[in-house]
Amino acid sequence: MSSLRSAIEAMAAYVPGEQPQGGKFIKLNTNENPYPCSPRVVQAIERACATGLQRYPDPAASSFRIRAAQVLGVEPEWILCGNGSDDILTIVTRAFVGEGELVRYPTPSYVLYRTLAEIQGARYQEVPFDANWSLGSDFTESADDLRLVYLANPNSPSGTMIPSSIVREMAERLPCPLLVDEAYVDFADDNCLSLVAENEKIMVSRSLSKSYALAGLRFGFLVAQPHVIEQLAKVKDSYNCDALSLAGACAAIDDQSWLVANRAQIVATRGRLVSTMRDLGFQTPDSQANFAWNTHPDVAARTLYEQLKQAGVLVRYMEYPRFGDGLRISVGTNEQIDTCLELIRSMV
Amino acid sequence: MSSLRSAIEAMAAYVPGEQPQGGKFIKLNTNENPYPCSPRVVQAIERACATGLQRYPDPAASSFRIRAAQVLGVEPEWILCGNGSDDILTIVTRAFVGEGELVRYPTPSYVLYRTLAEIQGARYQEVPFDANWSLGSDFTESADDLRLVYLANPNSPSGTMIPSSIVREMAERLPCPLLVDEAYVDFADDNCLSLVAENEKIMVSRSLSKSYALAGLRFGFLVAQPHVIEQLAKVKDSYNCDALSLAGACAAIDDQSWLVANRAQIVATRGRLVSTMRDLGFQTPDSQANFAWNTHPDVAARTLYEQLKQAGVLVRYMEYPRFGDGLRISVGTNEQIDTCLELIRSMV
Description:
The structure is a homodimer of 348-residue chains.
Chain A (H helix, E strand, L loop, with lengths): L5 H5 L15 E3 L10 H13 L10 H11 L6 E4 L2 H12 L5 E6 L4 H8 L3 E6 L17 E7 L11 H10 L4 E4 L13 H4 L3 E6 L12 E4 L2 H7 L10 H12 L1 H24 L11 E4 L6 H10 L2 E8 L3 E7 L3 H14 L1
Parallel strand pairs in A: 1-10, 3-4, 3-5, 5-6, 6-7
Antiparallel strand pairs in A: 2-8, 7-8, 9-11, 10-11
Helix pairs in contact in A: 2-9, 3-9, 4-5, 10-12
């Protein structure tokens, strides 16, 4: 239609990982948790169904914020809930970034950051990671109209992490807010949560999709200083979190012993995945997430991806301009990873 | 925070209707359906829970689009799904309206339209309804940078409707797209669905919140021409609809006999509400929605609202600049409406 914003017309659609409906693939391509969520989540959802769905949910999501605040050691006023952490990323972008203004993020990283900038009609600056997945001083340089910096930490596709002590220094140098996207942090040894109280420019987003095995539920949240949350709340849809996801998210965050046990299993399987891939000749960085990033000096990643798909195993082939390509493999069950590794062994 | 967009800092937060958690009020303030949803919806949600929540939902929401297309007599490519129809309104606004550009809507109407414009940094033009709730030629006049016109039809708070034949003419005269917000249309005698195929400028949004008794589920959708849907899909979050709301929405739209029976009950109760309010001296227009709008020549609406709240009945007090105030009363069960009417009878 002629009156569409030119920014929208010009942009390419964001392409999420393949989500084949039906269950014929071993699905190691979108960093889902291979195990079912805590049974308490399903019980809570069934109770919410029994209460009835005809009423609007609580627009403030108070029940979740109270519980999450206890778990995280903050006050409920420091938390904003979203329809997945993608919703949180959207809200933050809309609040801070106007048309023609600038956002910055590392590359290769989460591809959605660019899409968010494009939808907003903003400009974006991609700062390449160093060879060892650290970031140089250009990541924190001032720039005209720089309004927001995104940092996926742990990063995707690498699975690597910038230490929180370095993130603290980055935020101090930056002239704008820093959104630390901690979608994978429950699988890591470090996190940036405590930095939020130190510096109002630091915001931390979290997701229940991966570590709580709730990708189907769409629930994420932001931790930021209360005066920031208050402004961001203006930008969110009033009823962005539905009654069932709220009930499920409350039960999930209440069941920390489930999280601990699931995390231990994922971390153990991740160790086997990483070491075996290295044995097979891949360059695979240590991972702090629930996936591993794999490149091979001789074997083409795209060919491997296609052969694996043919054999019923879906991994993520990723190609980045001026960087190269590789395979991002999500940590499945031991059995799924064994199947995947045996197939790769026969291909390289 | 200093780097917040000035448009966000300056705006007032949108205030949704009161949503007291817990059940002590007869709740007639946010147009929820007083009856529980189709039992098939709950069954479908329980099945989806049993399948597991660890996987991402289908980003294209194909299952719902296929079913809704059959019910509505369009093709699936004409449908875009949203996390409530508020999400749809947001997506359409972001796709068509840039900073400083203009949107238009009637007043008094859905208050969110202004908020959507403000978040986008856009300008807004409010065109007053005529005394009989029709709209004059100024509603379709050209204006510099006019990018989108919203029309809630049936309108809230009035419950009145612009006939589809008039909407067709409006769209022909307008220089920009017209979003017909049909959140309440399942309770009406007319709708604008068939106009979408006639004119690419017409888009129709629908909600499952009211007529399907699923306000807690957050599900809405847009019907527009496929080339429009394709562009709008770029603006939506990939996974904006969760697995449970998708399952529930499919079951809901499949159960058209539930809709027909529920609608008949609501329409019957609405008739009693409107006629009794008139008997009590209120000016209450004929309603095509699941609520009625009530003003009284002598009795202050705010006082009535407060007295009703004191007595445990929550209705919506609404005040519009340069228009006045009144009470919007949602159609509850017969019993709830009787209680409300008896209280009002004792107050006027």
